[in-house]
Amino acid sequence: MNPHENGVAVVTGATGGMGQVIALTLARRGMHVVTIARRPQRAEDLRTRIAQSPGGGSLGVIQGDLSHRAGVIAACAAIRERHGALRLLINNAGAHYPDHRVNPDGIEMHIAVDYLAAYGLTRLLEPELRRGRARVVNVASDTLRDTRQVKLSGRPRPATLDIDQLDDLTTLNPARGFVPFQAYARAKLLTVTSGYALARSLAGSVTINAVHPGIVATEIIDDLIPSVLRPFGGVIRRTMLSPDQGAAAALRLATDPAIRETTGRYYVRDSDTITPPISYAADVQNRLLETTDRFFGLETPIP
What we know:
Oligomer: single chain
Number of helices: 10
Number of domains: 1
Shape: globular
Order of helices and strands: EHEHEHEHHEHEHHHEEH
CATH topology: Rossmann fold
CATH architecture: 3-Layer(aba) Sandwich
Largest sheet: 8 strands, mixed
Strand order of the largest sheet: 3-2-1-4-5-6-7-8
Helix content: 25-40%
């Protein structure tokens, strides 16, 4: 175990635009930042930038693939081997897929990457998070409150969950009737829903909050722009937030002393916001936790 005076922060997706800003900012505050990368060489530029930055922080890279169960479990084992306590876990990694794909576990890829990776890291690293009295920040998307890609008229259409599908994760986002944008939103809704329950079970030692950082001009946004608007992609991106602006919302939840004890909340940037009613339903939360813990071979916590 390597002691780090200012604490250890696990940041997923740290090689992307917003993730790089988060990792650099935390390192400049003297933290040791750990990230997980399928191709560790992609993190070398970030390691160099951190080494050349003031603050005395550093970067540790663990090779791993968070898109399937074995990869999540292996990454957590590597983190536990190196660090006995964690100060921060920022689940920033996310992905959007234009077609229906499943991982080696038979799980649709939005569910795997945008939900299970964050959940698995939080639960499997729970002892280390408790020791560090950590904050967990889940980077979500406000698509969970409105799945319309073009919002010119009409009422919001929140992401939906079928409670009868929550006993088997392989039934979520099936191929039949698959709509990528809705599949992405549903995975983010699962993250927020489970986060509310985990926040209760970890209250007093770990805080868990979720944040929509705004519409940020990152790689994922290219897939989220509706096909009819893609010819105007360059113009649209110029109206979006920069990665620095998007990262600020996640960093606030991770570092602001004024909200140190705040937990079980969802923010749209800095605004505490209500999510769809189903996300607060106890039976939905409990069934989701039971199924997801079973997937990872864990005993379900008491919410």
